[in-house]
Specification:
Blueprint: H1 18-87, H2 96-107, E1 112-119, E2 124-128, E3 132-133, H3 143-150, E4 156-157, E5 161-162, E6 166-167, E7 175-187, E8 190-201, H4 203-210, E9 219-223, E10 229-231, H5 235-239, H6 247-250, E11 256-262, E12 265-274, E13 279-286, H7 292-338, H8 352-374, H9 384-393, H10 396-411, H11 415-433, E14 439-441, H12 442-459, E15 464-470, E16 478-480, H13 484-495, E17 503-512, E18 515-522, H14 529-535, H15 550-562, E19 567-573, E20 577-585, H16 591-594
Parallel strand pairs: 15-17
Antiparallel strand pairs: 1-2, 1-8, 3-6, 4-7, 5-7, 7-8, 9-10, 9-13, 11-12, 12-13, 14-16, 17-18, 18-20, 19-20
Helix pairs in contact: 1-2, 1-7, 7-8, 10-11, 11-12
Length: about 600
């Protein structure tokens, strides 16, 4: 990279020291944690603010509902007083009814515009103050008259309307809400039906509603049981079409608090039914937005979060230094080993894991020294065939090539891979030795071939890929030592000899009934049917290009140890690949096996 130019590669974790990595991870974790905590606190504050506003608004709506309910009940009491105390006890032919109505009117003139008693024929009997029906008004056709006379047992409240039934100079066209009810009057000793009409002034509703403030753009409106608006703070805007209210929908809701999405807005609706009338008082509150206090709280949360970030950064720097120092010391010792100094002194220290790692590297270094001097040692065997097999397993070409790879990696300062391949080689020969045993566990046999494949994969770069799939339930079963490695070696040297890449070797181990099966599958050049038949014959001579053990040798050893019914099965097609299946008895590894 040219000097002065920035590259994202510089941010790669591979280019950071362990101290920087720990610091970065801790700091990023702290930032995420603090951000989440801040978000939770802010959200809880917002929810608390919303709940407080909703609770306060609910109280306001409740008080307002009680006021409206009280007002309407007082109006009903006034009508009851006129009916039961005046009309029922007085003959309309004398002046006592006028005196009684006047007394009630004077005592309640703050809420009543006028009182009228209308006969069943639509004629004005008495009124307070003195009124006269308009010449062109036909009371009999009025909705309130028809409804009240039809439902004589009920008191009816009308929608707000202009008072246009009577002639009166100052209040002829004022807004009123009419209370009407059918009554029975006595006229010269005869009972007849009439209508009591009380016009309640609309100013009362304007006064109590106009002073209501729910906050955050909230408001209250009143509808009848069908959703028709009785009072609304934006009545003029609604009538002109500049504002839309979902009053019909709100009238269908039950009493209580609900959150609704109306006209594309999230609204909290507080609905309360007004007693006898069935009117609906609806409090509307938009989703509570944070005001000045919320903004101040947001800045406070940001300040606290920044303060905690600063403190955590300081603590992270201290912790990362304490953790990284022992690892840096261990890294220096490993670099000495990479340079070829096997006599370097390793002093394990630090946390338990780092100290254990230091001890492991120290022990591994000791084992490497031993292995380097014992790699070509011959092994004793109990039988002549076993001796030949064990001696042929250490093919000089394989060992020399592996050592060449180790030397090449050390010279190229590729110490990690060198340590890996030395460790794999050590495990490979440890399992090959197995204290002179020829029957080992499936786990050890698979580990042996895994180390072999790892070494060969490093040697033949990009020539093949491999996979090992073992049923964990069979790891403790018995297996013949050095059984898989010769077959895998055969697949590498012969099956993929002329392939340039994309080679695949798959090893599987599984159990069926009382049998144990190992399969080695490759996608190499394959073999003809004649070659497959001669592969396991006595006349077949294996190539010395690999370990020298050969497929035939493995088949004979299996039959020697487990019986003639067990052994190998070879399936192959030219240019399709080869599959070799090993058949063994499914026997758990035990003391009898250890003696073989």
């Amino acid at each position: 990279m040219e000097k002065g130019k920035f590259s994202l590669k510089n941010l790669s974790i591979k280019n950071l020291s362990i101290q920087s990595s720990i610091f970065m991870y801790f700091t990023v974790t702290a930032i995420i944690a603090i951000a989440l905590i801040s978000l939770i606190i802010f959200q809880r504050f917002t929810n608390s603010l919303n709940a407080t506003i909703i609770e306060e608004n609910s109280g306001i709506v409740g008080q307002l509902g009680e006021s409206v309910d009280s007002y309407l009940r007082n109006a009903m009491k006034v009508s009851d007083s006129i009916y039961y105390n005046v009309i029922k006890n007085t003959d309309i032919s004398n002046d006592d009814i006028k005196k009684g109505m006047n007394l009630i009117y004077v005592n309640n003139d703050n809420m009543i515009d006028d009182i009228a008693l209308i006969s069943g024929k639509g004629e004005l009997i008495e009124s307070m103050p003195a009124l006269r029906l308009k010449d062109n008004s036909n009371v009999l056709e009025k909705d309130f008259f028809k409804k009240s006379m039809a439902e004589s047992e009920y008191i009816n409240f009308s929608m707000p309307h202009i008072r246009d039934l009577f002639d009166r100079n100052e209040n002829s066209y004022s807004w009123v809400i009419s209370l009407s009810r059918a009554v029975e009057v006595t006229d010269e000793g005869k009972a007849t039906q009439a209508l009591l009409l009380i016009n309640l002034n609309y100013r009362y509703f304007e006064e109590i509603f106009s002073n209501v403030n729910l906050g955050n753009g909230g408001y209250v409106y009143l509808t009848n049981d069908r959703g028709d608006i009785i009072w609304h703070p934006k009545q003029n805007e609604i009538y002109s079409g500049r504002f839309n209210e979902d009053n019909k929908y709100a009238a269908t809701l039950k009493d209580g608090i609900t959150v609704e999405n109306l006209s594309g807005k999230n609204l909290t609706l507080n609905v309360r039914t007004i007693g006898y009338t069935g009117w609906k008082l609806v409090g509307v509150t938009p989703s509570a937005a944070l005001g000045i206090d919320g903004i101040k709280f947001r800045f406070f949360v940001l300040f606290v979060a920044d303060l905690f970030l600063f403190l955590l950064a300081m603590i992270n720097a201290f912790i990362s230094d304490k953790i990284s120092n022992p690892i840096k010391s261990l890294d220096g010792s490993v670099r000495e080993i990479e340079s070829g100094n096997l006599d370097v002194e390793i002093v394990p220290s630090g946390s338990y894991e780092v100290e254990h790692l230091g001890k492991s590297i120290k022990n591994m270094l000791g084992r490497i020294k031993v292995l380097m001097s014992d790699l070509v040692a011959e092994h004793n065997a109990k039988r002549k065939s076993e001796f030949d097999t064990l001696q042929s397993q250490i093919n000089p070409h394989f060992l020399y090539n592996t050592l060449d790879i180790i030397v090449w990696m050390i010279e190229n300062e590729n110490s990690d891979k060198a340590v890996n391949i030395v460790t794999a080689l050590a495990k490979f020969f440890r399992i090959s030795l197995s204290k002179g045993k020829n029957i080992i566990t499936v786990k050890d046999e698979v580990e042996h071939v895994r180390n072999y494949l790892m070494i060969q994969n490093m040697r033949f770069k990009n020539r093949f890929e491999y996979s090992i799939d073992v049923d964990e339930k069979v790891l403790s079963y018995s297996s013949l030592k050095l059984m898989l490695q010769p077959l895998v070696e055969n697949a590498i040297y012969h099956g993929m000899e002329f392939m340039d890449g994309d080679g695949e070797i798959d090893v599987k181990v599984f159990k069926e009934d009382d049998s144990l099966y190992f399969t080695i599958t490759d996608n190499g050049l394959g073999m003809s049917e004649d070659m497959v038949e001669t592969l396991l014959s006595k006349d077949f001579v294996s190539s010395k290009k690999g370990s020298g053990i050969g497929v035939k040798n493995v088949n004979e050893r299996i039959k020697l140890y487990f019986g003639s019914e067990y052994g190998l099965k070879v399936e192959s097609e030219p240019d399709e690949g080869t599959k070799i299946t090993i058949h063994l008895p499914a026997v758990v590894y035990g003391e009898n096996d250890e003696d073989r």
